[in-house]
Structure formats: C-alpha cells, structure tokens
Amino acid sequence: MTDKYPSALLEKAVSEFSKLPGIGRKSALRLVLYMLRREDEEVDAFGRAITTLKHEVKYCRVCHNISDTEVCPICSDVRRDDTTICVVENIQDVMAVEKTQQYNGLYHVLGGIISPMDGIGPNDIAVESLVERVKSGKIKEVILALSSTMEGDTTNFYISRKLAGFDVAVSVIARGISVGDELEYTDEVTLGRSIINRTPFKQ
Amino acid sequence: MTDKYPSALLEKAVSEFSKLPGIGRKSALRLVLYMLRREDEEVDAFGRAITTLKHEVKYCRVCHNISDTEVCPICSDVRRDDTTICVVENIQDVMAVEKTQQYNGLYHVLGGIISPMDGIGPNDIAVESLVERVKSGKIKEVILALSSTMEGDTTNFYISRKLAGFDVAVSVIARGISVGDELEYTDEVTLGRSIINRTPFKQ
C-alpha cells in the first residue's frame, strides 16, 4: 500500500529524497520532517550547497579528480613526485589513498572500471588521457590501484597492454591478508596470493 | 583522522548532507557524488523541492497536520466523522493511522509528547488548541493514540485531566499482543495488559 501524504509539497520533497541511493520512502520522510524543524536559512544553505556544487564543480584537466580549480591542488603541488601516477577508479579512492599518507605521487581518476555487465567499456573510462600523460615522457611508474575484482583485473590488464609500448614501469598494489586478519578466517584465494607475493622479512 | 576533500564545494555539500540524522560523512560523500552524476535539472529539482517545502509549507489551523491549504483535506472532508478526534504525536502517526483504514474521524497533531528529559513540557505541545476544539461542543470522543512509553502515558494523563470538565468521552488505543505474536515471546507487561483488557470473543 502506498502512503498518502497530507501535502503535495511534502510528497514532492519525499520523492526527491527517496531517489537517493540507499534511502527508502520511510527514511526520506524522516529526513524531510527533520528539515521542516530546522531554520529557513539552514534549509536554504542545504539546497544551495548541492546546486552550487553541481553547477560550479570542475574536474582537474590533468588527473580528472574533482577540483575547484582548472588543475587540482595535488597536480599543482610542486612537492609531490610528478614521475609517478596512481590509477584509481574514482574520487573516493583518491581520498582513501591520501588518507594512508604513504603515497606522494600524482593520481589518475578513471571515472569507472571496465564492466561489460554494466555496459562500461574501455572507451567509457579515462584511459586515453592516461596514455597521453605517459606519452609526455616524464612518467617513470604507473601504479594500478583498482579493486581486487574481476572488473578491476580486466581494467588492469587493459591499461597494462595500452602502456606496453612505453618506457614506464607498471605495478599493481599488493594483495594479501589485511592487517589484523587472522589466518583461520582468511579466504583461501587471498591467503594463496599472500604466500605467492611474500616479501623478505625485515627485522 | 578527518578526510581531506579535494574541493571546498564538495566539502561544503558533504557537511550539509552529514547534518541529516543517521547520515555520517561517508554516506554523505556517497550521496553527494551520486548527485554529481545526475543531470543538472534533476539536482536543481532536488534542491528546489526541499526549499519550496520549507518556505511554503502550511499547517492545518484546526488539527496542525501538515497541509498545502489553510484547513487540511482531512478536516475539510465532509464524509469524515467530525465528532471524533484522534490525538497523535506527529505527522507520521497521522499517516500510520490513515494507512490502517480503520478510522474515519479527525485528528489532532500535538507536535510532540511531554518529555521532561528532553525539556518538552505541557506548554510545548498543542493541548490548548485541543481543549478549544472540545470546548466548541461538537466533539463526542477523543481517542488518545500516543506511543506506549512513559512519555506517552504522562501526556495521556495530562490531556485526560485537561478534558475532565467537558462532556466528552476520552479513550486510549488498546494495548496488547501484536497480531502474529507468539505468547512465549511476548514480554510480561504487554501480556498482562492484554489479559486485563480482554474483549468478548466474537464468532
């Protein structure tokens, strides 16, 4: 049975909210009624933040990361190593790698990974512009940091082939057991990988 | 460690989203990035739906339910029994009762229940206007349909005292085991209530 809303404006707001991923009509109603209890200015600020972002957002013309400027702060930071590119699927992944504080090179945001099931082919992701960056000659290493899934593997394979003719090292991030994992509960594929990719023990 | 966002506009939109109840910064980022993938018009429609609702929303001057008109569709519906008022805490509760299709009277939305812990006293909820409605003389029954909590009980008690001087029946919704409940798993207070409030068996 569909809910009957006492107001068309309420109905409209709820249906807009429930279009968001992971938000059903019940949560949407809760969010909208929360909005109604807030001050006018707060609600306006909320609406404005979303529409302003949408209209004024830019993407770095070098790495395609989201940015307020033509070239993003990472690409224009002279203290960063501009001979290394870390290839990631999306903006969240840039943030995830940055958070580790273990990487000081540049990025390349593909905007997706090859997934025939979802109709995403090689031409739907930003591989050509990556090849162009490598072609410029300055890049020494490309690190593939994609998800450890079939789609990620496919994309890794495609990119590595595209870069095969250039004088650039192509590496993938290590796969193995997570820090804190207990062997007993690790799946066998991951454990197998971590044995094959074992590294010298450092004291 | 706080996340570092590549864009101030993104940061602003994420922080606005994460003010919503039950939405953390990670979900907020996911929602905002989803917005970025949608069309301009869709995002504008979203922003507009929220701000329009906030600016143009009205509350029925009779029952305080949310409404697009001065008097809500329920209060102005001549087919409804205007001698019975069902008292509820909020708008969601009106929708919940309506959904049962078991009630054909009017409503009165308190806008809260008495909760000293949350600083909500009798004067913060719409009891005076309920008394006024009863005073008008037309009302034969007031049904208290509040949550079965200490706050609900307190509010029931307060309202029933306020209405004590008037020629009106005051009832509360039945408390007992839920439809589909197994006795074995029902808490003893609820089960006790359902025995005390037993009703004649109808064949």
Automatic annotation (TrEMBL), chains A, B:
Ranges annotated as C4-type zinc finger: 60-75
Keyword Repeat recorded: no
Alphabetized GO MF terms: DNA binding; zinc ion binding
Pfam families: RecR_C (PF21175), RecR_HhH (PF21176), RecR_ZnF (PF02132), Toprim_4 (PF13662)
CDD domains referenced in this protein's UniProt entry, alphabetically: TOPRIM_recR
Domain Toprim, chain residue ranges per copy: 83-178
Keywords: DNA damage, DNA recombination, DNA repair, Metal-binding, Zinc, Zinc-finger
A biological process term (GO) from this entry: DNA repair
NCBIfam families: recR
Similarity annotation: Belongs to the RecR family.
HAMAP family registered for this protein in UniProt: RecR
Record-given protein name: Recombination protein RecR
Gene (UniProt): recR
